[in-house]
Amino acid sequence: MIPLPTRDRGPPHDPVPGSEPSVYGWPLQSQRRCGERLRQRKVGLSFSTLMRFHRIIAVIFLAWVLRADPGRAQDSAPVPPPPSPTDNGVRVGEEQARAYAIETPVPQRVPVYPDDPQSALWEVDPRVAFARAQREQRPLLLLFTADWNPRSLKLSEEVFATKSFNEFVKQHVVICYLNYPRNQTDAHDLLRQWKERFKVMGFPNLLVFDPEGNVVREIAGYTSGKPVTYFNQLKEVVMPVVAATEERKAAMRKKGYRDWRNREGKTLFAHFVRWGGGLVTLRGVNGEAWTIQLATLSDADRVLVESFPPVGEAPGG
Asked: What is the pTM of this model?
């Protein structure tokens, strides 16, 4: 450190001959050299402090920008998914979370042939599928599959995504599929229960049920490149069940049962009980009563109902 000169200390060395004296007793040339060093040091300190100050300002400005526009941070940091409405702190894997769709109160459906506006639909909840099969008195096809399994993917592509299969389903059966993760421990409990219940081993595996929920046949596996062989085998299993069901329905039609349709084309094989107050009560083959709004029926069925005399208010259950 360069000491500041004072009068009491006197000059640190003898004046240089011919130099201009100063008030401090130093040669003026020495004072100038000392002053230049001091100015350089002061400038250096100021620049370092200024740089630190600029860094602080930059950090504050960046924080303000990201807070004002969170989208700018998406490229640099992942955004965690929002918690579910019933989040209780438990975390599950992505595939297991997707499996919770099986419990949705509004069942999801997947079109078989999207190019067809009236495409048949895959159910994804077997409980809904079994209830629908019994309500409509149709056989049920329950497919155990996996989107990571090559044979399952080929079966879906070569058979289940075709126009022929779509028409077959619309005329004869109810379909439902269960998609399993590669790691079975990631599967939802309900998925594991369905697999264990029917002792399903491997994918793909198709179970054929009658309308009452009894297993008729199992079709396991698939050979790539042979969709016609598979489809013919499927029809050989399903059509006898369809024939037996139609024979049973023909006998029940003599007792007043028929196919009732709503405005969306959905059917209910049931017996008319009564109507009144804008409500209609129908009874299914299993004895379950259905009370629906008259306005939701197709035009033909609504005309049929109104041809009967109303009997007060239809009960709500």
From this structure: 0.62
